[in-house]
Amino acid sequence: MKFYGELLVFVLLFITNLRVFFVHHVRRDPLVVLAPFTFIVAIFQILAWGIDVFTVLGLLIALFVLLSNFHAIFRYMERLYVDHYSALMKVWAVFTIMISAIALAGTIYFAPVEQNSRNIGVAEKITHYKGSFRSGFEKAGAFDTKSMTLYEFGPDESRESEGAVTLAEARNLIILLTPDKRGDTEHYKPYLQELAARGITICSADFFADDGAWLHSFADKKILRRTAMVIQSRLNLQAFEAQREYYSYNVSQEYAVLIPMLRERYGADKKVLLISDFMADIAADDFTKKNPELVAGVLKLSSINMYKSAGYGCIEQTDPLLALSMGLSRDSSRATPKLLADKTLEAINDIK
After folding, report:
1. pLDDT digits (tens, 9 = 90+) for 265-303
2. CB atoms inside a 10 Å sphere around CB 300
3. How far is 315 from 313, CA to CA, in rounded Å?
């Protein structure tokens, strides 16, 4: 959905600026209302999906276009007529058309590799919670501030699953992925879908509670955190990795919330297979040592040699631009999700 929102923003910008070349007689200019509408859509894109290169680019261009069309918007609201636009306005329109066209081309070129869960027999359930680590979490209402989101991916029970045998083997396990904060669940979705398509139910959660700070700044906000942590790790990976013990404390808080919640939901007699990706590695080991009766095993995705984007998720599918900056390319074959799913099934079989 993020991709289609970006397409909408850049196409609207293209139309908004192109219109100035088609005013050849005195008339009102209703298309000018696209300028504020596009700006609002760009804002909603950031609120929904967070800040990244394309959402920020869309917002900035939309803002400049809105400001440059302010006089035209005023004339339209006052029911005044326009017979032509100035040469300066046309020059500016050419410039913004070029920028919008480049941005549109970039959006298409770096489009994510997406797969509809229903088409591959996967059921996806998302539950929002409000609260904090101090006070606890409870299901959030439509207008509550969401501080935790629980994702559950599993085989669609209304359709036959090719992985039915594997599912039967895994019935006594709760499988929990703790995503690295440079990816969050969204950037592990191809892996989660791949595993669910093979008959395995797997859970993941994203926390944004006020008392679960990672960066201790405004960058801890949902729309900023992932991008801020990606930039931080890319600029100084050594300093980023040196904070592993601190990451462990935060993840331990998440385990203290999630594991009792999942055992209550799926069965208190079941053990948990903890799947981590760098940030949660130490916390997974520590939790296992303290609660051996609860944990069936630990799978560290970052230890898989052929997993080239460890800590960032399946970016060859979800974020091809970031993948390119790391020397990787967009992969429609979903090789990384399939690799991670294979290793997960091996870990489940080893537990059996």
Report:
1. 998 889 999 999 999 999 999 999 999 999 999 999 999
2. 18
3. 6
